[in-house]
Design a protein that fits this description.
It is built from six helices and 15 strands. By secondary structure, it is α/β, with parallel strands linked by helices. β13 and β14 form a beta hairpin. The longest helix is centred in the middle third of the chain and has 17 residues.
């Protein structure tokens, strides 16, 4: 997740930097003390360069609300969080579709919850390029993928709506998920990788077990040597990621 924080108060910038350094999420953060400097960075790198913007409402050059209007008008589709000392701002922000409001002084628990919720929402809407030939790709929402099935020099991507045959082999997909810090996919056998977001239930048997996914009660076998790793990742994911937003 790529985040930009805008505030002209150096103590707020320092506090947020310290909070982010304590979090386990992979977050690339840029800090800005003027709206103009943030706007110039966005113009240089593209409208949707940042996944999440945390904007101070009151700024000396362009206030956070006006900046949010400018960015939305330019096509920004990411999440916006406002920092504010005033209650009245809430009624003025509906057109820019704010994700959250954080009051100053910042409550650390609410700040942490806001960042984690934003990360989950961003990841669920994340787009993945699926190579289907040497030159062609199909774009798929990560949350639409149920599981991957390995085959000879190819991988079947099973989504909510259709199956896609990818030219990327299973081991390459696993490396891709790891390099992109995508933690919702886990290998459950030599042939299958499942999206933990769609696990409805699971059952242990003598050797291995079975997973039932939330689409048409699709059932996938878990190999005996993969079971403990699946349970470990499932428990962690359920505690820290599996939420409805």
């Amino acid at each position: 997740m790529r985040l930009a924080l805008l505030d002209d108060d150096e103590s707020i910038l320092k506090e947020v930097r310290q909070r982010l350094e304590c979090m386990t999420e992979t977050i690339e953060t840029d800090y800005f003390s003027t709206s103009t400097s943030l706007l110039n960075t966005i113009k240089k790198n593209g409208t949707n360069y940042y996944d999440l913007l945390i904007l101070d409402h009151i700024m000396p050059d362009i206030n956070g609300l006006d900046l949010a209007h400018m960015l939305r008008d330019d096509g920004y589709t990411g999440l916006i969080v406002f920092l504010t000392c005033e209650d009245g701002i809430i009624d003025d922000t509906f057109r820019v579709l704010p994700f959250r409001f954080l009051r100053k002084p910042i409550d650390t628990d609410r700040f942490d919850e806001t960042i984690l919720s934003a990360s989950k929402k961003i990841n669920k809407n994340r787009l993945i390029q699926v190579p289907i030939s040497s030159a062609d790709f199909e774009i798929v929402k990560m949350n639409d993928i149920l599981l991957l099935e390995g085959g000879h020099r190819k991988t079947k991507i099973i989504t909510k709506d259709k199956d896609i045959i990818s030219t990327r082999i299973m081991s390459e997909w696993l490396k891709h998920f790891e390099s992109e810090d995508i933690g919702c996919f886990v290998r459950v056998s030599k042939s299958y990788v499942v999206n933990l977001e769609h696990v409805k239930s699971y059952t242990k048997v003598y050797r291995g077990g079975f997973i039932r996914l939330d689409m048409d009660n699709l059932e996938v076998e878990v190999g005996n040597s993969y079971w403990n790793r699946f349970i470990e990742k499932m428990n962690f994911y359920s505690l820290s990621n599996k939420v409805t937003i």
